[in-house]
Structures
1.
Amino acid sequence: MRAQAGERLDDRAIVARQLRDAARSVARPSAWMGAARELALSAFHIATYPLGIATADLAYEPATPRRVEPHPALLADPDAADVPVVLVHGYFHNRSAFLIMTRALHRAGFRHVHGLNYNPLRHDCAELAAMLAIEVERVLDATGQQRCVLVGHSMGGIVARLFAQELAAPGTVDTVVTLGSPHLGSYTAHLGFGPAAAELRPRSRLLRRLEEGARPSGTRWIAYYSDLDLMVTPAVNAKLVHPAVEATNIALRDTGHLSLLLSGEALRSVVDHLADRTMGWSGEHPRPLSPAAAGTGSGAGGGTARRHGPDPG
């Protein structure tokens, strides 16, 4: 009982701090601009939502992209362009969330971009991770590749992490990028419905399991978080801080939860990191890196194992 009472006091202190931070941000003109952009992008997401249902593949893999501007890093490492990118949307959304990011990836030279669709109200995160496993298997078979990149927004990042940590065979997942994913839980999740929403609350059984099960691996982890993200409360809970994972955490200022999918700064940073595998190999970066500012690092091994199963390590 004392522990539960202490947790409630901690929760109230965290929420109060989040409200104080939000009040301070009101004084910044850039925060108002970010909030206005978030409202506009919310309308865009609502308008494009039917596209994720009505089309089979949503042109995620067009035969001939309208205009390709190869990323400099892909010119130096052309094999990276063939590594498939699997996009995992968040709660109350579908794969149409990644319309703009898909276009940016194709224009940068990535040849295989695929979006997973699922119903977050009917399944828990373990079931969604199993669906992702099937999709990854299908994509790797179709492209003839041995490894893939996962990009998850919000709850999609937690699903991607669960798959990478518990279901993927070693060497299958090259990179995991999470955008506003509540790795340490979000108090906003108390307002959600369905089993998956409950798993996004702070100290949920699933999030504790992910923390306890994290192990060093050849996977590169990159987590984006934002000070204006009102869906992840507190916003810093979108950071991936487990020492075994050695994630790169990237802060985006004055960017809302949905804006993480559409802002030019976020898109450029994601494309830069996926194109250049020397970027983002641990450490804390206050702002997204550019290729010129990137340090060098060792790449993760792209093992030959593709089939899904628990990592013995």
2.
Amino acid sequence: MVNHTDLLDLLISSMGVYVPSGLHGERDAQIEGDVVVRARGLPWQASDCHVAQFFAGLEIAPGGIALCLSAEGRRNGEALVRFKTPEMRELALKRHRHFLLSRYIEVYKATPEEFLHVAAGIMAMLIPYQPINKHFSHCD
């Protein structure tokens, strides 16, 4: 098992970014090796809400949807989704070639490391959080 909370906390603290609540969870949370899937073929306009709708009825872990981005920072039509249990992932895999917004979606097994890699990429795209007066200190 990979302790993703420690990895994300280290990444967050080293970059000094603001993280929306829910991206990292409880202190001892871990990602089991068999709870992540990769969804491919998402429409460009698909959001995390669309991904959640596609997997409706299945228990997605809090902060468990990571949309993949291209080198230009645009969505590339893929997402990694972390479920609460291996059983939920097995049910998610049965949604292979089901439709979302008139496109069929491919669903494959993925690893916790892949999820963390994508989540870390999203973290790098976030704007660094700094107090606003730091930006205007030259105005004194």
